[in-house]
Please model this.
Amino acid sequence: MDEFWNDLLLQMKAVESIGDKIERGEAYLEELNGSLPALNKIINGLFELLQTPEFGLEISTDFILQVLNDILYGIENEDAVFLLDVLRYGLLSVFYYIISELQSGGIHEQTSL
Model:
């Protein structure tokens, strides 16, 4: 679980950095593409957590899948404004929720994923 926790924190920083670049009008696609394998790993870990009842995470897998589809849409259509919104108000919201839930339950210290 510590690896998931650390990866999640690193991915949050990467997404925030990408969002900042988009907002400043800087090139962001290379960093975004480079972070996709780590994002995939985080999402797979998240789906594992969601299938484990003792974690008690209450987030819709449909919502997560919609966020991922929206990210793909933003990338494919090179829609920076849409992508910024989905990263900040979709993906980061999911990350903040997971961190909050894991911290409040002390789960990341109790269990190995």
Notes: Residues 80-105 form the longest helix (26 residues).
